[in-house]
Amino acid sequence: MLRRALLPVRALVATFLVGAIPVMAAGANPLTAYYLMAAGSLGDMIAITEVFVRAAPLMMTGLAIAVAFRAKFWNIGAEGQLYAGAILGTLVAVNFPELPFWIHIPFMIVAGMIGGALCALPGILKIKLKVGDVVTTLMLNFIMVILTSYLVQNVLKDPFTRWPQSPPITESATYPILIPFTRFHLGIVVALFFALVVGYGLIEYTALGYEIKAIGSNEIASRLAGINPTTLTIKTAIISGSFAGLAGIGEVAGIRHHLIATLSPVPIGYGLTGVVIAVMSGLSPLWVVVVAFLFSIIINGSQTMSRLTGVPIFLGEIFQGLALGFSLLFLFLDQYRIRRVR
Amino acid sequence: MSEKIVEMKGITKKFPNILANDHIDLQLRKGEVCALLGENGAGKSTLMKILYGLYHADEGQILIRGQAVNIDSPKDAIASGIGMVHQHFALDDKLTAVENLILGTKQARILLDMKGAKKEVIDLSKKFGLEVDPDSKVYQLSEGMKQRIEILKTLLRGAQILIFDEPTAVLTPLETRDLFKTIRALVSQGHAIVFISHHLEEVLSISDRIVVLRNGKVVGEKRAEETNEAELAQMMVGREIEEVSRLKGRKAAQPVLEISGLCALNDKKLEAVRNVSLSVRKGEIVSVAGVSGNGQKELTEVILGMRKATSGKVVINGKDVTNKPTKTIIQQKLGCIAEDRIGWGLLMDRPIAENLILGLHRSSKLSTKTPVANFLKTQEIKQYTQQLLTRFDIRGTDVDAPVKLLSGGNLQKIILARVLSQEPEILLASQPTRGLDVGATEYVHKLLLELRDKGIGVLLVSEDLEEILTLSDTIAVMFRGEIVGTLSAESATSEQLGLMMAGIKQPEGTKQ
Prior knowledge:
Oligomer: heterodimer
Number of strands of chain B: 22
Structural class of chain B: alpha/beta
Largest sheet of chain A: none
CATH topology of the largest domain in chain B: Rossmann fold
Number of strands of chain A: 0
Strand order of the largest sheet of chain B: 6-7-8-3-9-10
CATH topology of chain A: ABC transporter involved in vitamin B12 uptake, BtuC
Shape of chain B: globular
Structural class of chain A: mainly alpha
Shape of chain A: globular
């Protein structure tokens, strides 16, 4: 348990040590750069709330992938599911202005989760048709991003501004701001609730979560115990996709207030970053939350650092890549014990 | 007496919770087969892994040809002329036999000398009766062939001392006979052999000298001609072994499992199960005897709904379950002890509790149904686990550790505990004692008889004639996918069964 707990820490230390090389190559002092990174992401109240804002979608996609990977359902389509959730959620959010917010918001959340779930379902083709789940879910990422782009330029285009975005969502479907003069919105609380209560509870305390772990560990043994792998994979896909869909809802209802084709602006997208987060957290929902915050700090901090030191913004990506690489390396090395030979 | 080639003195190895080897002395001479006999966990494999450099001894000394040596890795061991044939083969399935053999040898440096390598392999295999087709890909070969490649691998690397770790566990009786011939040939050429096993019969027939280990200590050493199975068994276990006795005179009860005219294909789309009919009654053990690979595996898979039947019927408790999903079949109170424990029975990277509740996790005893979800009862699961651990005498180091850290006997007990606590009415047991030591085997046998007495119908698939003869009420012999004869256990003899297993049909009277 302690070793597992140390994994993200060790990976992060290694990342910052090795990350110093490109920082120096860009002509900055690594210590100054890291100081600015920390100051930029944690230096004041607004910056801290921004870390929460960024962490919310990351923990949802990370959770989506952690749950799927537990069942050996290789869903790497959280990006597409995020957009699918955003599309369906937006359809609910721009309409029905007469609804009270306490109906409208749950309605939108459910729509977003259904959108994400629907987008994850093609992944189950792996059961009957043996189509690789990696391929189907990955390909749907591109399809959904392009579909969103098409929608906001055509069918869903805002008739007033003529910009490539949907009309603004109604007041009653907007996530309220919880800390005045910041962007700390209700969606962050929703994300934390889903990760810490729904996700963690599912994996640790429910029969379904147990079945997900069992089938991920040994499919044949699970079948012989009366678990139907088809049904279970469908359930996993639905749960996983709906978590990712929720990330899309948070971005639309909490931050953008329109559907746009660039909801997921992190260089490799919240969806793929979620894969990194899930792996780094050892597929454990609690650690997903911690790692999502760490990534949020890196992403936000590297923006500040880049502004002030002239180091290219891509450094944030380098850090994410290094973090994934080191997580995988340490996961692998943990299977061995080092022994001194004489 | 020929020269001592290996001397291990005072070897001690501690693992976190166990003293695996406790000051063990072992000598090995040129041209002899020395058997290491002992139950699972007695320390046989640990001792040999130390000799092969996979483990490092905490104390003790190893002398090879009278010279003290330090063996820190298999590389050092190979340099000292030691080779090990492992239980689990280390071969690349997609390469050919020769390609596997030359991996890491001089022929595979920069330029491949395939022709020379092939010639060397063929010469060597002829010399020791280890014929393998050098050009066939490894995945096409049987387990016996793969083992031959492993043996050739050690010989090509110049091994004079060969360690066989439970070599017969994966072999059919015929392949075992061939292996023994090879071992004899090796010994006659002056090689020294260590043969790790817990099969008394084999050990007696192949070895010159038998060293018995128990709880990490040497408890006895005998020359093969001076001892017998009973004495060895007692030394291994440390007490007398009870013979199982058969209850007689049960009346015919209603059948719980009926198979009629069943046919099925194997993975290569060839007919593997041909027109098989069987019936198992309440309180009866019916055995399917036969050499592995004669359709038993496919037959059990069809019964379990893991393979499609092309024709015929499987009826459980009067309900036709042919080609139904596994879930439906299991719900008919069918329990399964699968042949492949790890692959079919266990969640190796999950803790004991999760392995024990598999299948019962949705029962009202272990979970609470709510409209939101079915929540597991953590406390009850803990208690339940403790109960089963005590009742089945499962010894794990740590309840929360993944079960892959447990020994084979304890793993089988976990499966038994799980299957039996689900209270099956029919039990399908495939090779339930394969790879288990005498103590664990005895335990499994007793359990099967107990179940039978409770009125459970047992279908036992086994290759072990002794097991079949001691346990069964009815014996069906399977050969090339067919049931070639059905005998009642009283009238059957092992000779007769042996002939039938080899495909020689019995003329009159025996077929029902």
